[in-house]
Every structure is written in C-alpha cells, then in structure tokens.
Design goal:
Blueprint: H1 6-28, H2 39-67, H3 79-109, H4 112-117, H5 132-161, H6 166-169
Helix pairs in contact: 1-2, 2-3, 3-5
The structure holds protoporphyrin IX containing FE (2 copies).
C-alpha cells in the first residue's frame, strides 16, 4: 500500500480548499462586516452552511480513514519527528472539529439559526465579541492556520529534502 485511499485523497483536497476558504473569508470578510450591515445575514448564512458541509465531510473523512488501508508511517528520519507527525495529524482533526463546535456554540448563544435561516426579523446582537465560544473561534482559527502552515512545510521537507515522494501518497494512482 503506497498511497492513501482515493476517497481519502479526494476528501483531503476538497476539505483543504473548503477550510482555507472558510478561514480566509471568516477573518477577512465575515468578521469585518458590521452586524448592522444588511449584507451580514447573507455572509453569516454562507459561512454557517460552509461550516456544516465541512463538518459532514470531516465525519465522512474520519470514517473513511478508519476503514481504509493506509500506507506505512512516513519516516522523517527521527523517531521524535515521526511521533510529532502523527500527533500533528490528530491535532488538525481536533482543531477543525473545535472550529465547527465553537462556531455552532456562538451561533446558538446569539440566536443565529432563527435570525439567519428563519428570517425571524430579530436584530443581530451589536457584535459577537463578548461571547466566549466566539473568542475561542478566533483563537482556534489562528492555531489552525499555523498548524496548516507547519503541515505544508513538513510535507515540502519530506518531498524536497528527504526526497521520499510524500506528496504522491496523498494523490491518485496505482
Ligand atoms: C486545510 C488544510 C489541510 C489539512 C487540514 C490537512 C490535513 C491532513 C491530515 C489530517 C492528514 C493525514 C491523513 C488523514 O488523516 O486524512 C494529511 C496528510 C497529508 N497532507 Fe494534508 N492537510 C491540509 C493541506 C495540505 C496541503 C496544502 C498539502 C501539500 C502541500 C498537504 C499534504 C499532505 C500530504 C503529502 C499528506 C500525507 C502525509 C503522510 O503520508 O503521512 N496537506 N493532511
Ligand atoms: C471549520 C469550519 C469553520 C472555519 C474554518 C471558520 C472560520 C472562521 C473565522 C476565521 C472567523 C473569524 C475569526 C476572527 O477573525 O476572529 C469566523 C467567525 C465566525 N464564525 Fe466561523 N468558521 C467555521 C465554522 C463555523 C460554523 C459551523 C459556524 C456557525 C454555525 C460559524 C460561525 C461563525 C460566527 C458567528 C463568526 C463571527 C463573525 C463575526 O465576528 O462577525 N463558524 N469563522
């Protein structure tokens, strides 16, 4: 077994795209629109729907990961680094679920499901800044961003320094 299962490969790249878009849009667009701007509802709706699709695909990914065969552990040339690599992958899963969880908690506390999806007409709170899960949502976003950067650097280290063709393990082929 030289590669991950094609279903896991597809989910890895589809989710990479969706998570990067959610991170970018969340910090650069959504959180910059004041809550009294009428466009905020649409931005929140798009963000929340994206978040739910990410959650569904992440659950599917977790299942696929557990029922399909995986290639042997990649060797970074050092036992400690190998362990760190395994932990980093678990941490990525954890951070993404924590993003979704803190997003949902923020939405529930501020009554967003009714305001955004049932057009209840109730005004949005002035902002979400005092809501504890919203604070976590922002902090976890930064940690996730840093972990993704580290993950990319690690895969480039494997590919170009150790020259072990790691990228092909997360791509399609025989
Ligand atoms: C949102 C961004 C990303 C996340 C959350 C993420 C997460 C993960 C996770 C959790 C794994 C372990 C396999 C699994 O359980 O699914 C993995 C494997 C992998 N990822 Fe990513 N990834 C991201 C983006 C990228 C990017 C941009 C690259 C390439 C530069 C990349 C390259 C790889 C490679 C080569 C593997 C296989 C590693 C191995 O064989 O041990 N990933 N990724
Ligand atoms: C992996 C999925 C998600 C990612 C990557 C993500 C990303 C982000 C980011 C980067 C921000 C801005 C943080 C900041 O600059 O402090 C944000 C804000 C927010 N997100 Fe998410 N989010 C996700 C899922 C969700 C979900 C599922 C919900 C609700 C159901 C949600 C609700 C919110 C809300 C209410 C805000 C605050 C907007 C504001 O301050 O005006 N998010 N999100």
């Amino acid at each position: 077994m030289k590669r991950y299962h094609p279903a896991l490969v597809s989910l890895h790249w589809l989710l990479t795209f969706m998570i990067v878009v959610a991170l970018f849009m969340g910090s650069n667009i959504l959180s910059q629109i004041p809550n009294d701007n009428p466009e905020k509802l649409l931005a929140l709706k798009a963000h929340m729907i994206t978040g739910f699709i990410i959650l569904t695909l992440m659950i599917a990914r977790l299942i696929v990961r557990n029922v399909t065969e995986k290639p042997p552990l990649a060797d970074a040339g050092n036992a400690l680094l190998n362990k760190a690599g395994v932990m980093a992958h678990y941490l990525l899963y954890l951070l993404i679920f924590a993003m979704v969880g803190s997003g949902i908690a923020t939405a529930l506390i501020s009554g967003l499901p009714d305001i955004v999806f049932n057009s209840s007409g109730v005004a949005l709170p002035e902002d979400f800044n005092d809501i504890l899960p919203r604070i976590f949502h922002g902090v976890i976003a930064k940690i996730l961003f840093a972990m993704i950067a580290l993950h990319i650097l690690a895969s480039l280290y494997h590919q170009f320094v150790r020259k072990d063709h790691l990228l092909s393990r997360m791509w399609f082929g025989k």
